[in-house]
Amino acid sequence: MKRILIVKVTSLGDIVETLPVVSDLRRAFPGVQIDWAADAAFADIIRWNPGVDRVLSAPLRKFKKARNWNDLKGIAASIGELRAEKYDVILDIHGVYKSAIIAFIARGRRRFGYLNQDLGERGAAFAYNARFGPRPLTDAWRGMRVSVADALGYRFDDTPDYNICLPALARDLEIPRGAPIAMLFHATSADVKKWPKANWGEVGRWLSERGYAIALPWGTEREREEAQAIAALMPGAIVLPKLSVEECAHWIQASEIVVGTDTGLVHLAHALQRRTVMLFAATSREHFGVNDPGRTVSIGDEGAPPDVPAVLSAIESVMGGPSHAAVRSPQTGAAIR
């Protein structure tokens, strides 16, 4: 096995949770070249993993929104880059039309995809000449690792290795170094995933009383207004400036605990080995949740958001867990723990 292409196009949380597949493949096939095809919006996150040799990206999401000619040219150029290598194996672990098209265009001897009943979009089946086994009875993130391992005939370590190496920042974020930081990720792309502002206020006050500095990130103007409304409910809370994903990752890394809804940045907190509490209200905790006893816990469920006492209990359950970051110093490359 010399060259492998992973196809996982979007979105932030899914990209983050796919990173352990790279570590699994490197252990199974020492010296293998691993490339990854993804939407340009998430390419930098993949580049944080030094186990990926080449990131092939195209502005698919951007073109869909704006229909810009330059984005179309970028997509066309990415096709040539995609076909520059011939792969022993192409792994479409996304399973929708756009990922299947990428897998089909790429040059490869075997193109693996999910069985029809496990595809996100049934029409994606046209692209494959090999299939993963039936979807295993486990969460989505471990399921990807099981599918790839079974298809290629190797075993993997149950503990996922995200192997994230955050790059040095171009500017100082002025992250406070006194009190421990608690980041509250209240914002989400879907209103049905949100947790009431009053509940965030109760959690923030509880954490403040225990000496935590509360940091509230946001991404859109509406989310900024919501952050300000939540900050007004708790003493001394910081509404952060607008941050890039990379800058937000550094804030997460500097935090002692992260509490947030089922969103990509909270998955990133889990991957960065922060103490993490993930809240579910509209999606399946069993399928999409993260769990690492003593450090990360998911609570609530589809149609059954957690109440404040449940969240406070979850925070207490991870407070006693070990704090050890699996990120590496941008200066030395050594693990920071």
Write up this protein.
- The structure is a single chain.
- Helices cover 36% and strands 19% of the residues.
- The protein is an alpha/beta fold.
- It has 2 domains: 3-152, Rossmann fold, CATH 3.40.50; 181-336, Rossmann fold (3-Layer(aba) Sandwich).
- The strands form 3 sheets. It has a 6-stranded parallel β-sheet, with helices on both faces. A 6-stranded parallel β-sheet has the order 9-8-7-10-11-12, with helices on both faces. The protein has a two-stranded antiparallel sheet with strand order 13-14.
- Strand 4, helix 5 (97-105) and strand 5 form a beta-alpha-beta unit.
- The longest helix has 17 residues, at 12-28.
- The protein starts with a strand and ends with a strand.
- Residues 321-337 have low confidence and may be disordered.
Helix proportion range:
25-40%
* Approximate shape: globular
How many E strands?
Answer: 14
Strand order of the largest sheet: 3-2-1-4-5-6
| Biggest sheet record | 6 strands, parallel
What structural keywords apply?
single chain, 337 residues, alpha/beta, Rossmann fold, 2 domains, six-stranded parallel sheet, 12 helices, 14 strands, globular, disordered C terminus
